[in-house]
Write a structure and sequence with these properties.
This protein is α+β, with helices and mostly antiparallel strands. It has four domains: 156 residues, ATP-grasp fold, A domain (Dna Ligase, domain 1, 2-Layer Sandwich); 90 residues, 2-Layer Sandwich (D-amino Acid Aminotransferase, Chain A, domain 1); 149 residues, no CATH class; 113 residues, Glucose Oxidase, domain 1. Helices cover 42% and strands 18% of the residues. The chain has an eight-stranded mixed β-sheet. It has a six-stranded antiparallel β-sheet with strand order 9-8-7-6-10-11. Strand 6 and strand 7 form a beta hairpin. Helix 7 crosses helix 8 and helix 12 packs across helix 13. The protein is globular. The mean pLDDT is 90.
């Protein structure tokens, strides 16, 4: 019924989940892993079904209550208590889902840190119930995973009273150790940034504050343990604690670390005209913008930044008319036959999105401005279409319609309702061009690198309930602390900024897994010159997660 971590079967993630299976492998090869027992994942299936049933009528809160308030099967409860008593008087009960094998789900599920043996059955039910929290359900939706579809194992181990704790990563032969005095919980939850040390392959330790706080023997001990884990089982990340002077590995895993990207910023990008063009491509992103607006609007970008009202026309008719008028405008500004002009415009837009945009920028600056009345007509017709897509349930907000293709839009308008498709929201980017413009024209500030890469987008402060509702695909999500509640936004964000916390937080582990650039510990209000609520939606932010730097310019 239960599996001891020493049981060979405990190494199967299908039975014991990601956390427990890694620890079982480590224990087998002699790594400093605590003993433990696992409630196998298949035993959670009934609870997951119960949660799904109740959620239909009583929502996520009802689902959690239904799971947590039911008693475990009597035989299972007795086995859990008996096994727990053998481990000690104070125990940790941790979720171990198969989903947690990737950093995307880091911090998604609940763990209980101080339970008595008699309380462990309650902890097991609580871990299962955490699959139905609001924020976990949002992660399911963002990732396309069906709620409750992944069974959850539960790991029970002795609780420690750590003298020090933290996380460590092995990258290119160097171990990065981040730690705090006491439990690592404040660190991984995003409340404490911790102190940082680097241990080279030759054993040289760098990081004065870490050496002073943690002590060099602790840092070396953690680095040695992780190097041993990498050699023995391929793990290159860990969560660790030191108790009674000994290192214990609390979690093990393997992450892929991206190579650093270079950002090319041509001198010409400092011009106001280039700034207007950047604002334009951000205003009309995605397939729809590329097909029906940008090919002609780039001729006079500053003229098309204000919105227009919808036109009272049947939506499908409006879309057909908008497509025809857009092609005519493209031919007008490019001075060629419709077919040729469309090809030339499409190629210029593709070049603008690429790593070397200046050739297309030069061509666009030489175009003649389109007819103002016809331009307003196209935008008004598209406003009608976007409103219809919201009404049909294809998108949640009108601006999201830019990320649908012409064929997807046509299918929805003909049917009068959305299909089961998942739109490409969050997949269309202008990062090289956009980021270069913001770097060239914006103000800069230093930050702490938390996830590598370069991203750019509209600043959206997501810690305030009102501004968070305005979050759009490809926005830069800004929070006060790297708390797990922000994780669902990462699937659509272009970058992540937190004013507090540090790179050891679970949220940044999720960002790294999803290839979302991230920085922390930045005085963003000083950079934008106002409070974050007022700044939300009013600034473009470029984030360099490689070097720990960001730039801001008015939206």
């Amino acid at each position: 019924m239960l599996l001891d971590l020493t049981d060979e079967r405990a190494e199967d993630p299908g039975l014991t989940g990601a956390k427990a299976s890694w620890l079982a492998r480590g224990l087998r090869v002699g790594l400093p892993v605590l003993p433990g027992v696992v409630v196998p994942a298949p035993l959670s299936r009934a609870a997951m079904r119960r949660g799904l049933e109740v959620m239909e009528s009583r929502g996520s809160g009802g689902a959690r209550l239904a799971i947590s308030q039911e008693s475990l099967d009597a035989d299972l409860a007795d086995a859990v208590v008996a096994a727990s008593q053998a481990l000690g008087e104070t125990l940790v009960v941790r979720s171990s889902s198969m989903l947690e094998g990737g950093g995307e789900w880091s911090g998604a599920f609940t763990s209980y840190l101080v339970l008595s043996p008699d309380e462990t059955p309650v902890g097991v039910r609580g871990c299962w119930a955490s699959a139905f929290t609001v924020h976990t359900l949002e992660r399911y939706e963002a990732s396309g995973v069906e709620p409750g579809s992944a069974p959850m194992a539960v790991l029970i181990q002795p609780a420690l009273t750590p003298e020090f704790g933290g996380v460590a990563r092995l990258i290119d032969g160097e171990v990065s150790v981040i730690g705090v005095v006491g439990s690592p919980v404040p660190l991984v939850q995003g409340w404490d940034p911790g102190v940082h040390a680097q241990v080279s392959e030759s054993g040289v330790v760098k990081g004065d504050s870490a050496i002073s706080s943690l002590g060099e023997p602790v840092i070396r001990g953690v680095a040695d343990a992780l190097r041993s884990a990498e050699r023995a089982i391929g793990a290159n990340t860990c969560e660790w604690a030191v108790a009674a002077g000994s290192v214990a590995l609390l979690q093990l895993g393997r992450a892929e670390f991206r190579e650093k990207q270079a950002l090319d910023v041509p001198e010409e990008f400092a011009s106001p005209e280039i700034g207007d063009l950047a604002r334009l491509v951000r205003r009309f992103p995605g397939p729809l913008g590329e097909e029906l607006v940008l090919p002609w609007a780039v001729a006079s970008p500053a003229s098309f930044l204000d919105g227009v009202d919808p036109i009272d026309v049947e939506p499908l008719e409006a879309f057909v008319e908008a497509s025809q008028q857009a092609r005519a405008l493209t031919a007008e500004v490019w001075g060629a036959r419709k077919a040729d002009s469309s090809d030339r415009a499409a190629e210029a837009v593709r070049e603008l999105r690429g790593d070397q945009p200046m050739r297309s920028v030069g061509a666009m600056m030489a175009l003649r401005a389109p007819d103002a009345d016809r331009s307003s007509t196209v935008l008004g017709l598209l406003a009608t279409v976007r409103a219809a897509l919201v009404g049909a349930g294809a998108v949640g907000r009108p601006e999201q319609a830019w990320h649908l293709s012409s064929q997807e839009i046509t299918d929805v308008l003909r049917a009068g309702r959305a299909s089961e498709m998942r739109s490409r929201i969050g997949f269309d980017r202008w990062e090289p061009f956009d980021a270069a413009v913001v770097v060239a024209q914006g103000r800069s500030a230093d930050a702490v690198s938390a996830a590598s890469g370069i991203g750019v987008g509209r600043l959206c402060f997501v810690d305030d309930p009102n501004t968070a509702l305005d979050f759009r695909p490809r926005d830069v999500a800004v929070g006060l602390r790297p708390t797990p509640k922000l994780a669902p936004l990462l699937w659509d964000a272009s970058a992540l900024i937190t004013t507090g916390g540090g790179p050891a937080a679970h949220l940044f582990e999720s960002a790294r897994a999803l290839a979302i650039p991230a920085v922390s510990a930045v005085d963003l209000e000083s950079l934008v010159g106002t409070d974050l609520v007022s700044a939300s939606g009013r600034f473009s932010i470029a984030v360099d997660g490689n070097e720990g730097r960001l730039w801001a310019m008015p939206w």
